[in-house]
C-alpha cells in the first residue's frame, strides 16, 4: 500500500536515465529495474513521471510502456524538442515546431507510450524559425482532439512565455499551465524575471536539475570529472554540463557549500534538496514541483529521503546564499 507523500514540494520522477543499453549514458536499462523504481516511487506517495520524445534515443517512452505505466495509474508528461533546428538532426527522430511535426511528435510519443492520451504535453524548447501562431494552433487542435489534458512549455525566455500565453488567450487556445526549467542552489537565474512572469500568468514551475546534473554531490573534482557521470567526455551532453558547472567559479561555490555541510555532517546533495524544498522560490500552493532522476534504486531512495527532511541550519542556508553570489556572475542562461 502506498504511503502519503512526506515532501514539502511535490516530486516528479524524471525518466531521462531510462532506456536501451545501446544508448550512451543511460543507467536504467531493463524493464525490471524500471518497475522496481516505479514501485518505490509510488510506495513513497508519488505518482507523476516526466519524459520526452528524444530521451534515450526514443526508447525511454517505450520502456515506460513496457512497465505498464498506465495500468499503474501514473500521471504522465512528455515533451517535444525541435532538434532539427538546434542540432541538425535528421530521420524519424527529427522534429521542428511546424504544424506537421508538432502533430507527428505527439502521435509518435503516444504510440511509444502505448496510449491514446497523456496528462501533460510540453513544447520542450523554442523553434524561432516557425511562427508561434502555427505551432500553438496545432497544439490546440491536438488538445481538442483529446490527446492530452495540460499544456506545458520549457526552455523559453520569459518574454516568450508571456507572448505564448497572450496568443493562446487571445485566440481561445489552450494556455500553458506548467513551465519546466533548470533551477537549483547554484543555477538561480530564473528568480529575477522568469518566476515573476510565471506567477503573473499562474503557470507552475516544474524544476529540473536539482543537483546541477550531479555537480552538487561532491563526486566531481576540479579537472577530474567522474567517469560515467554526465560530465564524462563520453556522455553525449558532457560539453553542455561542463560549460554550466565545470568552471573554477563553480567549484569555488561548491566548496563554500561543502564546508558548511561538513560542520553538520550533511552531504552536499542533501543540502541541495533541502534548500529547494524549504528555502527556494518554489511554492507548493502555486503548483510547483521538483523533478528528480536516479541511476539506481538506492539513489532514488536516498533522494526521496533527503526531500522529506526539514529546513537546513541557518548557517548552511547562509552558505548556500554565499555560494550563489560567488557563482552568479557566470550563471548559465535558463533558456535555449
TrEMBL record:
Keywords: Oxidoreductase. Gene3D superfamilies: NADP-dependent oxidoreductase domain (3.20.20.100). The keyword DNA-binding does not apply. Coiled coil: none annotated. Pfam families: Aldo_ket_red. It comes from the Eukaryota. PANTHER family: NAD(P)-LINKED OXIDOREDUCTASE SUPERFAMILY PROTEIN, NADH-SPECIFIC METHYLGLYOXAL REDUCTASE-RELATED. Residues 11-324 form the NADP-dependent oxidoreductase domain. GO terms for molecular function: oxidoreductase activity. The keyword DNA repair does not apply. It comes from Colletotrichum siamense. This is Aflatoxin B1 aldehyde reductase member 3. The gene is Akr7a3. InterPro entries: AKR_Detox_Biosynth (IPR050523), NAD(P)_OxRdtase_dom_sf (IPR036812), NADP_OxRdtase_dom (IPR023210).
Amino acid at each position: 500500500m502506498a504511503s502519503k507523500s512526506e515532501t514539502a514540494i511535490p516530486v516528479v520522477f524524471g525518466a531521462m536515465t531510462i532506456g536501451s543499453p545501446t544508448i550512451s549514458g543511460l543507467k536504467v536499462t531493463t524493464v525490471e529495474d524500471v518497475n522496481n523504481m516505479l514501485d518505490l516511487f509510488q510506495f513513497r506517495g508519488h505518482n507523476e513521471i516526466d519524459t520526452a520524445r528524444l530521451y534515450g534515443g526514443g526508447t525511454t517512452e517505450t520502456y515506460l510502456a513496457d512497465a505498464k505505466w498506465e495500468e499503474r495509474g501514473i500521471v504522465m508528461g512528455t515533451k517535444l524538442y525541435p532538434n532539427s533546428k538546434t542540432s541538425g538532426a535528421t530521420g524519424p527522430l527529427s522534429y521542428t515546431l511546424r504544424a506537421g511535426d508538432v502533430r507527428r511528435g505527439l502521435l509518435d510519443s503516444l504510440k511509444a507510450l502505448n496510449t491514446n492520451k497523456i496528462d501533460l504535453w510540453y513544447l520542450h524548447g523554442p523553434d524561432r524559425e516557425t511562427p508561434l501562431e502555427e505551432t500553438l494552433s496545432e497544439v490546440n487542435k491536438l488538445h481538442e482532439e483529446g490527446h492530452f489534458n495540460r499544456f506545458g512549455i520549457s526552455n523559453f525566455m520569459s518574454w516568450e512565455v508571456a507572448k505564448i500565453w497572450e496568443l493562446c488567450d487571445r485566440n481561445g487556445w489552450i494556455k500553458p499551465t506548467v513551465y519546466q526549467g533548470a533551477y537549483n542552489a547554484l543555477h538561480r537565474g530564473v528568480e529575477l524575471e522568469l518566476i515573476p512572469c510565471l506567477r503573473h500568468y499562474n503557470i507552475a514551475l516544474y524544476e529540473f536539475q536539482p543537483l546541477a546534473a550531479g555537480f552538487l554531490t561532491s563526486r566531481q573534482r576540479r579537472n577530474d570529472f567522474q567517469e560515467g557521470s554526465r560530465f564524462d567526455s563520453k556522455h553525449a551532453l558532457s560539453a553542455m554540463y561542463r560549460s554550466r558547472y565545470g568552471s573554477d567559479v563553480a567549484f569555488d561555490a561548491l566548496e563554500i557549500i561543502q564546508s558548511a555541510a561538513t560542520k553538520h555532517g550533511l552531504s552536499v546533495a542533501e543540502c541541495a534538496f533541502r534548500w529547494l524544498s524549504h528555502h527556494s522560490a518554489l511554492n507548493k500552493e502555486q503548483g510547483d514541483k521538483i523533478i528528480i532522476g536516479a541511476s539506481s534504486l538506492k539513489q532514488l531512495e536516498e533522494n526521496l529521503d533527503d526531500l522529506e527532511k526539514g529546513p537546513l541550519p541557518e548557517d548552511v542556508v547562509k552558505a548556500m546564499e554565499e555560494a550563489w553570489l560567488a557563482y552568479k556572475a557566470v550563471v548559465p542562461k535558463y533558456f535555449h
